[in-house]
Amino acid sequence: MPSSVVIIGASDMLDALRARAGVSDADVFPDTQPLQALQAITEFRPSLVVLERLFAATSRGAALINRIKSDPGLEGTEIRVLSHTGDYTRVIARPAPPQSTPAPPRVEVTESSSAAAVDIATPAPPAQPLDWRGTRRAPRYRAQTGVEVHVDGTPAELIDVSVLGAQVLSTNSLRPNQRVRLSLMQEQGPIRVAAAVAWAKFELPRVGGAPQYRAGLEFADADEGALNGYCDRVKK
C-alpha cells in the first residue's frame, strides 16, 4: 500500500530527510526523478510531500511545487521544505481559491422566421506542458568578458548572472543536480553562494583549448541585495 508521505531530495539525504520529517514510512524519490515523483503524488494523493531545501530552490523543484499547488485533487496535500540538517523548515502556502464567476450569457440569434440559440463562451487555453528547465523569474545579465568566479574553489568564467542563478564555463566536470559552492569574486571580498547545477553540457574545445563544461546554476538562499550590486558591476 502506498505511503501517505512522499519525500524528494538528493539520494544521500533521503534517510536524514525521513528522520527530520518524523516519519518511518514514506515513498522516497531522488531529485533526479521529479516526473516519477509527480506521477506517484497525483496517483496516490499523499497527505504530505517533503522536498529537500536545495532541490526546492531549483527550477525543477519550483516546477514540481507549482504543479502540486495547481492540482485541485491535491488540496489536502501539505508541501513542506526541509533541510537535511534540520535547521530549516517551511510549509508552502497555497493560493486563495478563485472567486466563482457567473455562467456566460446565452444569446438568441434570429434569422428570418427561425431562431437558433448560441452559447457564447471563451474557449479554455490549452494545458501547458510542465517545463522542468523552469522559467526565468528574474532579469539575467550578460557578464563582461573575462569575469572570473570560483566553483568549488576552481576558477571558471561567468557568462551571465541574476539574483537567482548564473551560467558558467568550467574546466571541471559539472553534472545536473550536483551541489556546488560558487564564489563571485570582487574587490570587497567574494560573495559565496550555495548552488545546484540545473543543467550542464560538455563542449568540445577549440584548437589548442581545454575541454570545458557549460552549466546553469540555481542559487539557494543567496543575499539578493549583494547580488543586485554584483550584477550591476559585472554586466555588459
Task: State the order of secondary-structure elements, H for helix, E for strand.
Answer: EHEHEHHEEEEEEEEEEEH
Classify the beta-strand content into a percent band. 25-35%
Instruction: Give me the side-by-side strand order of the main sheet.
Output: 9-10-11-14-13-12
Count the strands? 14
Low-pLDDT ranges: 109-122, 124-136
Structural class: alpha+beta
General description of the model:
- The chain is built from five helices and 14 strands.
- The chain has helices spanning 14-21, 34-44, 53-56, 59-70, 224-234; strands at residues 5-9, 27-30, 48-52, 78-82, 89-91, 106-111, 114-119, 141-142, 148-151, 154-161, 165-170, 179-184, 191-203, 212-220.
- A six-stranded antiparallel beta barrel has the order 9-10-11-14-13-12. Strands 2-1-3-4-5 form a five-stranded mixed sheet, sandwiched between helices.
- α2 (34-44) packs parallel to α4.
- The radius of gyration is 23 Å and the shape is elongated.
